[in-house]
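Justification of computing resources. Each target in the renewal requires a structure prediction run like the one illustrated here; the chain below, 211 residues long, is used simply to show the kind of job we budget for.
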Amino acid sequence: MRVLDREELATDVLAAAVRLLGCTVEADTPEGRVDVRLVEVEAYRGSDDPASHSFRGRTARNGVMFGPAGHLYVYFVYGMHFCANITCLRDGEPGAVLLRAGEVVSDLATAHARRPTARRPADLARGPARLASLLGLGREHNGVDVTDPASPVRVLAAPPVDPALVRSGPRVGVAAAHDLTWRFWLDGSPAVSPYRPGRNAPRPELDARGA
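Resulting structure tokens:
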């Protein structure tokens, strides 16, 4: 498979999010390479999205979000987890897609060595913190170009997924702009994370996976 082209991500966050579904993230870890097929993502646009880290302007922390497209934006959250995003939009326009969940498509032994507490394969990369942990992503990966074949983390292109398989719903854990259905997932995947509304957000009638 070829590495995803930067121009495929230099588009609006919603289109980029859907384009990333089904693509594979390859990461070189100390235990070996881990490949994860993305099954759930979440879009954030800085210009008009109060839930985005870039909504109030550029800072040292969120600078990667301002482009160019195709770079990892990795941040530390709750004092204990890393989460990873892929930047999109044109250079200078802030936007990124959070990698929420994936299915391991490489050697499961390597994946279990990295995530020994996972009870089943579907739990290995179910949720953004678990996904980042499985791929070994940390502060040192902030700004990595995932469209470069020589990068330690790469995104491999996949044929666009069947639109009939794509579902959308509210983003997980955000209080601001909680009415935006900017989370996208592949219907039927057991790796899709549970829906949990953010503080002060209304609780829509959704099942455990937001369907």
